[in-house]
Amino acid sequence: MTRLLVRGSRFTPTGIDRVVLAYARWLLGEPDVALQPVATVAGRILACPRDLLVRIVDGAEAFSAAARANPAADRAWAALVAALGDDAPVERPLRARSAIGQLAPRAAWHASVLGREGWRLRTAQINAGAVYLNVSHTGLDHRRVLSRVAAAGAAPVVMIHDLIPITHPEYCSPAAEARHVRRMGEVLRHARLVIANSATTADALSRYALGLGRAAPPTAIAPLGLEPDFLAPPPALAATRPYFVALGTLEARKNLASLLALWRRLAETLGDAAPRLVLVGRRGWENESVIDHLERSKAALRLVHEIADLQDVQVASLLAGAKALLAPSFAEGYDLPVIEAMSVGAPVIASDIPVHRELAGAAMLIDPLDGPAWLAAIEAASVSSTRPPPRPGPRWADHFASVRDAVLDVR
């Protein structure tokens, strides 16, 4: 639960955060599982009180439920809805709110959680026959974690989300490649089972291991489940201006700079009749060209909105009303937004990369470097009224059914 302790104060979970929360809900609800939450600190494995994990999960659930009960209460969401309406000024785009305003509530959250519970953390007793389950990558770069688990006779089971810091280091923070190399080295040496979110990720791990002259551990492929708002979506956003959505952290591998260049061309050819683009996500690493477009490009200043920290119910409504989800990424391990969009019946235009061919074969797939083809697809979608039927996405219950069987096999 290390990631929940570090990032739980963000209130709006990202992709891996959602996975950790889903696993916590699952294991807390399994009466035949003797569950010991743990955190890793500098290579030490610390036992955490079960009630602390319950508090964190309940807090996340309460925050999501409040947003579901009244999504319009969020001022940023209300501003986006207004910006996509008839009366919205053309020259007033939305930009994501500064994170500075989140510092005080986040500090209060950490003080409440760690100040009241930190003294209860103790070195974990690792028993032979137990399973150490890590689904977040967190702590795996410390060489003492998995080795201690294995030496105690327990089974290390880890989820691998992607190998992008190794296969595409140019899209990540400067230290990410070395950290991920350490993680994968520990996984290859000690893991008894790997849970992969896609066949693409499993294949990347296998090829990486082969390049080192090793074999990957036994691997179970278990696609991630969707949250309830995408399985029973809310009404679509009733926008009067046609819009497209790109969903995910604003970082270089998402290829958003090319997307913004296309919007400049749309502005030149269509003027105010051009569709809007809504970027949903926090600003991430190596995104200088994207930020330059958002802050200095006249086309972006007129047609592109940026928003972060939306709740699931808001994202589902936004996708359901969009002309299409645009996913021009150069690399992905799973790409949950594509699955979410298809589940609410939104058209998907995505890059022709392995994971999209695996998971989104019904989408329109285009080479991420083929700008003219992307432009033509966006122009056609902006005037089309055709929408695919909703495609039911994977459920967490199915994910956990397959994972449970695989974990029982390693014991």
Report the strand count: 13
- The structural class is alpha/beta
Assess the beta-strand content as a share of residues: 5-15%
| Total of helices | 18
> Roughly what is the average pLDDT, rounded to an integer?
88
| Strand line-up in the sheet with most strands | 4-5-6-7
Number of individual domains: 2
Secondary-structure topology with pairs:
Elements: H1 2-7, H2 15-28, E1 38-41, E2 44-47, H3 50-69, H4 75-83, H5 103-117, E3 122-123, E4 131-134, H6 145-151, E5 155-160, H7 164-167, H8 176-190, E6 193-196, H9 199-211, E7 219-221, H10 228-231, E8 243-247, H11 256-270, E9 276-280, H12 288-296, H13 298-303, E10 304-307, H14 312-321, E11 325-327, H15 336-343, E12 348-351, H16 354-359, E13 364-366, H17 371-382, H18 396-410
Parallel strand pairs: 4-5, 5-6, 6-7, 8-9, 9-10, 11-12, 12-13
Antiparallel strand pairs: 1-2, 2-3
Structure description:
There is one protein chain. The protein is of the alpha/beta class and about 400 residues long. The chain has 2 domains: about 1-60 and about 105-225 and about 395-410, 3-Layer(aba) Sandwich (Rossmann fold), CATH 3.40.50; about 70-105 and about 230-380, Glycogen Phosphorylase B (Rossmann fold). About 45% of the residues lie in helices and about 10% in strands. It has 18 helices and 13 strands. The longest helix has 20 residues, at about 50-70.
